[in-house]
Predict the 3D structure of the following.
Amino acid sequence: MINISRLALAVLPAWLPVMAAAATYQVQIDTTPLAGRTGFFAFDLTQGTPGTINQVTVSAFSTSGALGAATVAGNATGSLAGTMTLSSSTFLSEWLQAVSFAAGVTRFNLSLGSNHLGADIPDQFAFFLLDGTLAPFTTSDPTGAGALIAIDLQQPVVVQTFVSPWAVVSVLPVVPEPATVLLTIAGACLLAGWSRRPGLKETPGRSQVSLTPSGGLTRSGRFGGAQKILNENSR
């Protein structure tokens, strides 16, 4: 018979890091200064040190602009009309979405993995506003790449937003519902209490149960850091 108390203790340490590793943000971008222009939204996921894989999911997407065709590179799947996913299983995954900008805002939810080992270079998600020639609209990005948002996928994730005369961006974390947290704790307490009922004993010689968590396109200036990683890996 499975010892419920040990099972609860096995589940909690495995489950809580998984919850912590899933970072979710609400993104809002006001592109009113770009009204009347055409260009692109670029969602990019660049691989850091090979060996760990992260996914970035975009959902609940809406925009005041008119969307055109999308071009994908690497491991990019889904649709902005539903859920779009990027994976760092390849050096660069990109969703390049044509758009006719309009006054108003673009919104979406961003769910980020944060698998990262020690001193490894983390995977990085970046969001760009590009003009019709695929050149980034100016931002304060100190690398010169012109990103509007850059996020290092590590624990904790490192979120950077940059100033631009062409857009105003905000990236706010989504706080888990208190009821969800309380339900998880209550469930663990219930399991621990159940194991203390008289008559529940572990049968010697039976196997124990343990649970473990389951675990392109290149444009000048935009992927300079990623190219450096590629060069280092090829030595």
User: Anything to note?
Assistant: The chain has three helices and twelve strands. Residues 178 and 209 are 30 Å apart (CA to CA). Confidence is low (pLDDT under 50) at residues 7-21, 179-184, 200-221, 227-232.
